[in-house]
Amino acid sequence: MRKRIGALTMVLALAAMVADAQDFREKYEQFKQKATQTYNDFRAEANAKYCEFLKGAWEWYEQMPVVKKPKDETVPPVVLPENDKQKPVTVRPILLDTVVAPTPITVVQPTPVSPIKDVPTVAPFVHHFTFYGTRGDVRLPQQPDAQLTVLNGNFTNKDMSAAWRALSSQAYDNAVRDCIAIRTQHQLDDYAYLLMLRSLGESYFGGECNAATALTAWLFCQSGYQMRLGNADGRLLLLFGTKHVIYDLPYFVMDGEGFYLLKRKGENLNPRITACDVAFPGEQPLSLEISQPIRFANDESGVRTLKSSRYRELAVNVSVNKNLINYYNDYLSSYKDDNLLTRWALLANAPLQESTAEAISEQMRPCLAGKSQLDQVEMILNWVQTGFVYEYDDKVWGEDRAFFAEETLYYPYCDCEDRAILFTRLVKNLVGLKCALVYYPGHLAAAVHFTDAVNGDYLQVNGERFTIADPTYINAPVGRTMPKMMNRSATAILLQ
Asked: Which of 57, 275, 414, 458 has the lowest CB atom count within 10 Å?
């Protein structure tokens, strides 16, 4: 009898546990549904309020004067005299003016104001488009809403509000999810993502038009980015917020913040516009930092063979992705943290595309194997000094233009800043040593923080010694300062 009671008790206990588990699952599902509904309601409410603001009167704004790139003096390359090659490298501290310390690279990109669920009930029409040679697939309505195409005429604020309301329906939710998935898959930086959205909008509507701008702006906004809408003589404008100061790009100040115009090169617009200056909840400014290698589809350039004059075994065949080169041609030159010199750090901190980095590593590492830190850096330095043809930016481009590392590998000419950026990237990749750019008025060199004892001219930065290595002082070894720079103070630009 006692056994039967015990078994019954166990059965009842198990039944109670099953009932509790079932109750928990039901409550959890209710919680998920309620939470999802809360998210959806919050986003729907934010878009509904934004629609109301779009209906109202837009404020007038005057374009601010564009920020011009600073014009610096130019210092020509110098070849180390033959008689000086055998002179011993001495130890001499360089007068340090200031230090530009690195700030953390933005690695967390904006996200939607609330999670956006996949909507399987929406008809799965997939629109195909390309950006920088890369295919994108995004679910969109098969036919654009009439409220959007109305914008291509002489639109009113009410028309813009109706278009935003149409975009904010569930029919476009999958598009936001797909766009963010493309950003993740191809490791796009914020600006590349914005240009991708513009390509999508123009592809969907068959070219540049107000409807394409509206779709681009809505996707950009729903992805979590800070933007404003403007109107210049019936042309709908997208203005984006950023903490960078961008050179040669029109901008407008709204509530004390600068908003830059997404425009094409050579495009001129009325400097006086109206704009809806209302902030969307949770918006974040666009960053121009590139923290991971961008993965555009590969379109390899022709192969260049770049050789060191001193180390004959160091002959490297290089090719780069032309799709990436095309993006870098559209990339915006800027600085941040109120310091003009950070514009070079933004380029130097950008990693090489993986295929290019691997190809260089496979060819260079066998030559560097078994050598000291100094010997490895000497070999890389001479390769950059003697493997490339020097030319002034003004002569080649008509203006100052600094290169990402891949651009120096691609274009036939480069100058001091391009060489310094490529050199520091290679030293970090291949030798694993910290580097700095060294700025003198009119000239950019580099310096390396050796963990081994090394002689030469150096800068003492935060208790660490960075030894000079100048890629434009041809055939000069590590530790030698270009003669014209000997008595000038320098600024150290520390890299990530």
From this structure: 57
Which SS3 state, helix, strand or coil, does residue 160 take?
A: helix
- Retrieve residue 260's tokens: 């830059």
- With b meaning 16 or more CB within 10 Å and e meaning fewer, what string describes 326-352? ebbeebebbbbeebbbbbbbbbbbbbb
- The DSSP string of 29-44 is HHHHHHHHHHHHHHHH
* Torsional sign, CA 36, 42, 43, 45: positive
- Per-residue tokens: 167: 């975009």
Residues whose CB falls within 8 Å of the CB of residue 94, separated by 6 or more in sequence, listed in order:
438, 457, 458, 459, 468, 481, 489, 490
Q: Which pLDDT band holds residue 84 (cuts at 50, 70, 90)?
A: confident
Q: Can you tell me whether residue 211 is helix, strand or coil?
A: helix
Q: Report pLDDT digits (tens) over 397-455.
A: 888 899 999 999 999 999 999 999 999 999 999 999 999 999 998 899 999 999 999 99
Check if the beta carbon of residue 181 is closer than 8 Å to that of residue 160: no
Q: Is 468 exposed, middle or buried (0-12, 13-18, 19+ CB in 10 A)?
A: buried
Q: Note the pLDDT tens digit of each residue in 348-387.
A: 999 999 999 999 999 999 999 999 999 999 999 999 999 9
Quick check: 333 pLDDT over 80? yes
Give me the helix-helix angle, 173-185 and 210-222, nearest 10°. Answer: 70
Q: What is the pTM of this model?
A: 0.91
φ, ψ for residue 23, nearest 5 deg:
-65, -40
Predicted confidence at residue 16, as pLDDT, reads 54
pLDDT confidence of residue 38: 52
Assign 125 a pLDDT band (cuts: 50, 70, 90): very high
- Angstrom distance (rounded) from CA 211 to CA 198: 11
**3 state DSSP class of 133:** coil
Nearest one of 364, 357, 365, 362 to 321, comparing CA atoms: 357
Using the 8-state DSSP alphabet, how is residue 90 labeled?
-
Question: Three-state DSSP class for 449?
Answer: strand
- Using CA atoms, how far apart are residues 475 and 80, in angstroms rounded to an integer? 6
Half-sphere exposure of 56 (CA within 13 A, CB side): 10
Helix ranges (H only) for 87-172 are 146-149, 157-167
